[in-house]
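agent> fetching stored inputs for the zinc ion docking request
agent> found them:
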Amino acid sequence: MGGFGSGSYVRLMPRHARVEEMRRFDLTDLRRRGYLSGDVRLMKWTARAGRPAVAVGIVALESGVLFLWRTAPNAWHRIEVGYCFSQTSFGFKRWFCCPRCHQRARVLHWQDHPGQMACRKCYDLRYSSQSEEPRWRADRRAYELRSRLGSPDPANQEFPTKPPKMRRCTYEALRAQHDEFRQIWAQGMCDALSAMNRRAHYLR
Ligand SMILES: [Zn+2]
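agent> prediction call returned; pasting tokens
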């Protein structure tokens, strides 16, 4: 990534946390991974980048999902998120009902505290405006690719190794796409830096 120290990257990052780096509960994913099978299941996040490890208990209810977590040995918290339904040609599709805006959402996010769970729109009006900038969109899509390939830490920009079941040509195609996104991002950052330098020059 010649020319970019991590310092420049951090300084030029938007001030808000990015949605894709927030902790998330994806309803489809929870179901597929068996979290909604009936028992209390624990979802764990390891400590990373100054954020503590967290375990959240997930209990499937008829009307929604109950999330339980602990902030101190005897301090338990709970939030119950109801379901919303939309009609499809096959019947009904189930969604989370965002605790804040009560609109349907497939994914709920939280940053540091599961009690403040909300949908992307509630949390982050900045996401859509930011993603209009090609460099941030490319950065996000590179992140999504790494995460799709099962990277344990997709914020790390290294391209993950090939998942055992993926075909080599698919993997190579994804890698090429990833390189392209990184290139767009790097060019965008270069342009942003030059623009900043020009402004600084005028102000002198
Ligand atoms: Zn919402």
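agent> quick read of the result: The longest helix spans residues 168-203.
agent> awaiting further instructions
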